[in-house]
Amino acid sequence: MGMDVIAYTASPRPTPESRKDTGKYIVPNTGDPDGLIPSAWYSGLDKASLHNFLSQDIDILLIAVPLTPQTRHFLSAAEFEILGSKTNAFIVNIARGGLINQEDLITYLKKPISAGGLRGAALDVTDPEPLPADSELWALENVAITPHVSGLGITYAERSFAILDENLGNLERGRDLINLVNRKKGY
């Protein structure tokens, strides 16, 4: 598609083997199970690592991170300042609204690009959800808002039943179930 993809993960993935998707369920013929698409991998749980990643030449920042106490508002004014100062980035959030400090996002979406503002945002999730009718986000021309439906493609039911079928087989054979919520991790 003519774009360079870079990745940011919590843990380092320095080798080709570490970049492979080790999940127990991968939808056939989708994604990047071998981890070959990203040209560069960044990682860390601290702000310095995140800021190093955000200072790269990012045009579109796709957020797909679980919401935990550690990730709440992990994108705020300091991060938007980095994105706006170098790249005029567009933000896409398909994860959880609480990952972004929404008031800070609004500030940087309203700021002119020439002054370090963000180009725009596509938000499938907000905080709170549903987004109140009086939220400034509704009036911003550089924002697209969808009602938390990014995962609802035409094959959603088919994928869900495939996971159910696999889990029923695993249960019958005494194997671990897949796609479980880990309440200790928060996701």
UniProtKB/TrEMBL annotation:
<keyword id="KW-0560">Oxidoreductase</keyword>
<dbReference type="InterPro" id="IPR036291">
    <property type="entry name" value="NAD(P)-bd_dom_sf"/>
</dbReference>
<dbReference type="GO" id="GO:0016491">
    <property type="term" value="F:oxidoreductase activity"/>
</dbReference>
<protein>
    <recommendedName>
        <fullName>D-isomer specific 2-hydroxyacid dehydrogenase NAD-binding domain-containing protein</fullName>
    </recommendedName>
</protein>
<dbReference type="InterPro" id="IPR006140">
    <property type="entry name" value="D-isomer_DH_NAD-bd"/>
</dbReference>
<feature type="domain" description="D-isomer specific 2-hydroxyacid dehydrogenase NAD-binding">
    <location>
        <begin position="44"/>
        <end position="150"/>
    </location>
</feature>
<dbReference type="Pfam" id="PF02826">
    <property type="entry name" value="2-Hacid_dh_C"/>
</dbReference>
<dbReference type="GO" id="GO:0051287">
    <property type="term" value="F:NAD binding"/>
</dbReference>
<keyword id="KW-0520">NAD</keyword>
